[in-house]
Structures are given as structure tokens and as C-alpha cells.
Amino acid sequence: MAGYKPKVISLTKRPGHSFGFYLRVEYAVDGHLIRCLEMGGPAELAGMKDGDRILRVNGTFVDGLSHSEVVDLIRNSGASVTFHILDEASYDQAKAAGVNLSDNQSTPVANGGAKQALKPKLCYLVKSSSGYGFSIRSVKGEQGLFMTEVIRGSVADRAGVSVNDRLLEFNGENIEGSTHDQVVDKIKLAGGSSIMFLLVDEETDRHFQSKHMKIGAWLATPKYLPHKPRIIQLTKGPDGYGFLLKEEKNQTGHFTKDLDRGGPAEKAGLKEMDRLVAVDGKEVDSCSHEQVVDKIRQSGNKCCFLVVDKETDQMYKQGQVSPIVFLEEIKDSNSPPSYREALNLPAPVKPSTPVQSRKEELKPKLCKMEKASTGYGFHLNGIQGVSGHHIKEVVKGGAADTADLEDDDIVVEVNGVNVEQSSHDEVVAMIRSSGSSLELLVANKSVYDQLEAQGVTITRLLLGETSYAQVHTADTSEEEERHEEARPETPTEPARERTPSSSSGESIDERL
User: Fold this and answer.
1) Integer angstrom CA distances of residue 197 from 13, 120, 180, 215, 228
2) Separation CA 498–CA 506 (nearest Å)
3) Helix, strand, or coil here: 208?
4) Worst-scoring range by mean pLDDT, 100-109, 305-314, 356-365?
5) What is the DSSP secondary-structure string of 371-386?
6) Pairing between β-strand 7-12 and β-strand 109-110 as defined by DSSP bridges
7) Which of 144, 356, 430, 478 has the highest count of CB atoms within 10 angstroms of its CB?
8) In a 10 Å sphere around its CB, with 0-12 CB exposed, 13-18 middle and 19+ buried, how is residue 373 labelled?
């Protein structure tokens, strides 16, 4: 595949959210296409472009697979997935030239940067009715125990275990000096339905041995682990952060309790009985209650927590490793800072006072919004063969939702410029270049169709005395420092799955 270098894009999504793009196949167009990127979403911020083609999903070549097979591969990846993608022009050229796109000789670029550092890996296996799906072997004359006979699709395979991985730790215990039989006995006698391995692949093993470095779980990547710690960005409200920090009997750690309903902590995603691991990037496991409280107070009006729920906490404790390795992974990530911030920050919450309902009139809406850290919170959808730029997947509580933008609204103007005849890419470019604020003149589909049928040109003149839907910015008081009251966010409504559509007869797509 000389001359055609795919990019490697690794994405992680928050619970209840999507990766921020649609996967589509279109009539007479080759490949699995990236479409309808969510502005400020993980995919866009990681470098995906409209029209990019997916070549591989988690290393599996997919260019020849069906749409549904690729969708299943992505969905089965859980909260994290890695793509090999090729831009539209290169893909078309490669296809025209008959290039074998499955050739692995080209060096991919990870999220636009260099390949990530070599690391051992933590693998968490939950036993199924058919077992774990691996065997352990030892080689005469070689030190160590190695994974073998990893059954494809088994528990071990899905947990990230690969053939020839060397086993370093079992449930946090170093077993490098143990015999084959001793390790097998440990696994059999462990009881329970889950085990944690620290493994190292051949390349990583050679790298550390060449540097005479000891390998431990503190150096490991947690990317294969199914349960993720959460980063909570808190902004103090007039009554503090809205939660209590407590120590529990017979439990080690600092726990969040009694969250104020609708308070900053609940809105930011903090849950009842989350264990606090770090404050502003600093681990607090060894700190007293008073020391943790002081750290939070010293943060001022904004604070960043690393927390784990009970299930995640138990998983990390089984491996005897701190969830702080999750933060280390983020620090080493090649993703741009804006991507990490977008993952961690909650969407702005819609004010309790609803936007004044509009009369049933044939009028457009002028919607102004301020860009949040997670973007504007909507998809701009353009469908081949269908005119117009349609608003889709408005994020509940996001900037667009607060500004009264609705699904199926049709965009007429962007910042005062009529875009009805503009291409999808041109409109996207205008929105991106608008900076931190955006003004859209839109009409819902019914109004748009009726005005168009009457031959009426849609402009701001039709607004008359109707005021535009203004973004509400709440004034935040800084009078009190009460942090000690912190309640979990009403679970974010899961992103609605888009039914594969062929409305124009020319495409099907899937939101991912």
C-alpha cells in the first residue's frame, strides 16, 4: 500500500454517548464512509473527516465486510475502539489503481502523531460457561510463562490476551519466579468468576529487557479493562459543589454521598458512593479526610476529580493497582487536549425555566448559542439526493437544545449568510469558523415546506417582533465555599440509535 498511509484513530466515548459519527454505505460509492460528524465530538476532535473510509476496526480489515458486520465490530468494542482510516481522495485513488488496501506495510500514524509508547497491559477476564479460553505454556530454556491457545472470540481474546504474551502478575501477585504448575494451581484455587493478568507482548518485553527495566502494573495500559474510572470536572455553585465527602466503616477510601439533586456534582456526573481517587491529578488514597477536604478547598471554584464506582474499584483492587494509571494513560495519549477535555466535561445543563413556547406561525427561528467544551451539541446532516441541511441528534441539555434548536430543523442561514444552496462541507466550514458563538436561522420542516410551497423567501424579516431564542447563561455566585455537600446525575439519556435508513434509496447509515 505504498503511498497510501492510513491514520490510526483511537476513540473513547462516555457512558450513554456515541463516538460522534455515522457509519454509512452509499449507492455506487465504495467503502465504509464517515459521515455526519458531531461537532466537538470524539471523532471530529480526534481528526476524522467527512468522507474518510474505515479500513480496519481494532486491527481487523473491514473494507470487504458488510455494513452490518462493521457496525457489530464497533459496537462490540465497548467504550473504546481503534480505527485505521484513509482520507477520501487517497481511498479513491487507491481503488482506481487496484492497490491492495489490506497490505500492512505502510506505517500508520496514530491520531496524527507518533505511535504510542510500549507498555505492559492489564487484562481482566470474567469467566464464562466455557471457561476463559486460553492455555499457559512454558518453554524449556526460556524464563517465564506464556499465553497460548487463545480461542478467537473467547473471554481471553476479548480481554486483550494474545498468543505469546508473557505472564507477569496474577491478581496483583508477581509470578515470574513460579513454576507452570504453581501458576495453574493459583488460577484454579483463586475462586470467584474473574481474574486479572499483567501481560507483556514480545515487542514490549524486548524493549524493557534491553533497558534492564523492571516491569510492573504501575507502567501498564488499562485500555483493555472493561470498566473505566471517570474524570469529573466540577464548577462550584452558589451552595458549593453539592455533595458530602465521607469515610465509610470497614472500607478504605473517601466516598461521595448525599448529592444535592440538581447540584453541580450531580450535573457533572458524580454518583452516590463513588470513591475519590485523585483531586486535580493528585492521588489521595494515602491522605486523611481533612487533607482531602483541604485539597478541594484550595482548588478554588473549579476542581477535577478522578473517581471509580464500586464495580470499577473492585476490578482495580483485584489487580492490586491504582486507578491512577488511567490518568497516566491520558497524559501519554496522542489525542489533542481539546479531545480529552471534551470527553471529561459534562454538557451544559438546560435552565429550569423553559424557553418560551412559540406560537404556531409560519415563522423561522433565530437561534444563538455559545459553544461549550463538548461542542454545540447537534449533528448537521446532509443526505445524498436530498436538498437542505438538517439538524439531527440534538443533545439533551446541550448548547443547541438550550437555544431551542430541534431535530429536523432546516438551516437557512449561518451567521446571517444564506446556505440553502451551499454544500454540506461549506456549511460545516462556516460553523467551525464562527468561533465560540453561532447564530442559525432555521425553520422546522413543516414551516419550511409550507413557506417554500407558497414561494416565500425565508429571511429574518419573517421574524417580525419575535425575539430569537437566546442562550441562557446562569450567573454563578462565588459567595460560599461549601464543598462538603456533593448527588448522581440523572443518567444521561442514551444516544438514540438511528435506524439504518435508505430514505433516498442511496444510502444506509448507523450512528456510532
Assistant:
1) 25, 10, 15, 13, 17
2) 16
3) helix
4) 100-109
5) PBTTBS--EEE--TT-
6) parallel
7) 430
8) middle
